[in-house]
Write a structure and sequence with these properties.
Blueprint lengths: L1 H9 L17 E2 L8 E2 L12 H7 L3 H8 L1
Antiparallel strand pairs: 1-2
């Protein structure tokens, strides 16, 4: 899923906080303290705050998330 996310982030719309709507992906990219910070801005998955790729990262089952921490 991470490769897909990296690919998506190349095509991100790079929108600012003020440009977010209910139809734009709200996934933050970069460091909020820098000028490089932006939000994905691609079309969201129905009923979710993120686009398809970012939904895949954000809503992973708890068990796989817990295993990764080891």
């Amino acid at each position: 899923a991470l490769a897909k996310v990296n690919e998506v982030e190349k095509h991100a719309k790079r929108i600012s906080l003020m440009e977010l709507t209910e139809r734009t992906c709200k996934w933050p990219i970069g460091d909020p303290a820098t000028d490089d910070f932006y939000f994905c801005g691609l079309p969201v998955q129905q009923g979710k705050p993120y686009c398809d790729a970012h939904v895949g990262v954000a809503f992973q089952p708890m068990s796989s998330r817990r295993d990764r921490r080891r």
